[in-house]
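User: Run a structure prediction on this.
Assistant: Running it now.
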Amino acid sequence: MTALCRRLIAGLLLLVATPALGQDITSNVITLLTDDDAQVPAMLMHPSSGMNTHNPGVVIHHGGPGGHPARGCCAPRWAGEHLARLGYTVVSPLSRHSSGRSAGTYRSEPFETATLDIKAAVDFLAQIGAQDIILAGHSLGSIRITRYMIDTQDNRVKAMVHYAPTRDLPEWMQANMGRDRYLDVVDRHSKLVSEGRGDQIIYEVYEPSYPAPPGGESASLQTARNWLNWWGPAAQTRNTVWQADIKVPLLLLSGDEDTFVTMPYLEELKAAAVNAPLVDLRWYEGGVGHLFQGARATASKDTSDWLIDIGLGPRPAITTRFVDTQTATGRERSGVFYAPTIGMGLGKTAFMVVYGYGGDIMWSSNHWLCVRLAQAGHACLAGQTSGSGTNIIRATLESEMPDFAAWADWLESEGYDKIVMAGHSWGGIRITRYLNTSKDSRVKGMIYLAPTANAPTWAEKGFGKDAYDELVAQAEAAVAAGDGNRVLVNKSFRSPPPAPQGPARPRPQVAASFLSHWGPNANTVHTKEMRNIKVPVLAIAGNLDPFVDLPYLKEFARAAGGKAEYHWYDDGAPHSLIGWEQRTTEDIVAWTTKRVE
């Protein structure tokens, strides 16, 4: 999809997502708890109408040394307020490097504590529902957010925005002091550390180098150990070095009178980001300094426009509610139903999303896929079955079939007469078996995310033939004796290739359940079962999936009895497809529009 198309679509969605563009915002002070049990205050901003918890969330880190998120001159305020007015939820931590913390904090806190503070903000947004996180940093905050990504490789982060990104700290300090003095300071501080006096406070005055105008003066007040941690030759505070490991889109913004940033430096950062799928620059002329004086509104709008262009614009609000149904035999089942707030997706195809082996309705692909499908205008249901969670130990494949029928009935009772079933991993064999046994005419299409291999063959390879045959015999004897639900079949198991060799793990199931899923006569030979699927089929998998490789995905698609296509993500997509959620959803919606609607 082109950037122009994204902008047009996002503009329409924005009208739905935000009842009044430029709406009022609510600002609060909250407290984040870090992984090392520190309490970090933070600004929280969102529309006064409330948080759309399914929108992308934004974390903006202030600059420094020192720095403070509440200052009106800096990006956490002006960019944060702009994004909040558009519908984003924005968190800006008062980090342990801030001027607002106690006097002893900044001077002794190593640079890497920023990672803990940023993670606490990302965790907060994820915990309230945001599935896509955008990291932004102003000035020194730029290096902090880059360091965060290097330290964590957090796949919840989908894009990064750098406002006036400062230069690599060791090289910048050497330019300020001159090489000889810099090396002398490094020697003195290193000696203090080696003598056990690394906590001694050092006050260093220096003149900032070009592009800062001559004659200025600045200073650092830090312990000897911490000065080396930030500014020393071995300090891990270099944006140009780390950019090569960033794998999300980047936006770099700065101005022509910035005292720390030049256009050649921005271009150097862009050139270094060899693994980022997109790197864009915004350069402002006419006397725009490090604090974006005179260009704050423009930089804010450029940021939101760019986020829209890459698919991270504000999204429509959706409704989520917990629902219940009953099977034909009176078994109660509960589920989560997602729908657009406006129109409830009536008249469009509804989706029934089915989790993988041992999964549940409130996590994994059920949640992220249903949220995004509802934002795209479709109703989506994730319903429990007899095999939910740990019930998989006792459930048989056939015992789940009445559950799917009950959920299809429920969708029809709500006004949805066209259903696409989507199964993730083991959920794929579940939906295949359902359609094969029910011939449900309401099901108009089938989607397979990381579809399972042929289960009996896969299990035999994992257990080894002799062990597999022994387990099958044990399970068959238990079933024949009427003890199929009493005898536990339990032996450690290694996933066969394409999974890498790993430790053996137990896979306990009662005998009847084991045979239903893994036995030689089980209805889980997926490529065989697919022959009877006559509705359109879409299969999606990625090259880091330990259970699905490209030859199998092609074989799986060829096995379908109707029109089938597959999408292979060869850029690092895992079995969960986490990190590829939006791409997956866009492919599903496009396929549904073409093949079903």
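The chain has a mean pLDDT of 92.
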